[in-house]
Task: structure prediction
Amino acid sequence: MSFTQEQTVKTNTKKLEELEGVIAKAIKKVRGRKENDLCKYIPMNSGGYMHHFTLRKMKYKKPEELSSLIEKFILTADRPLVVPPKQRAARGSRKKKDQLAFSKLQLERLLNMARLSG
Result:
């Protein structure tokens, strides 16, 4: 390993250690138990809060930026605010507009009329 590579490795580990300290303080401040608990306090440009995958990626690729975000939105804030989640498309059962919804009683009557008519 060359001298410059050793320097970058040392600075990266130093930055990571500093970031770990900042993360530990932030977790304590929000009364969380793990790193992912911090995500809800860090807003994103696209709306909503930071995804835990993004937090993990930034921890190793952009530690200075993550540290500044944590300090800005959690450590320097008097009371850190939970960011409301981004609006998402509705999921689950959707009601069809043109479809009639019969009650159980109505279905039984309809079947009974069909049986009587032949």
Observations:
- The mean pLDDT is 87.
- The longest helix spans residues 3-29.
- Residues 3-75 form one domain.
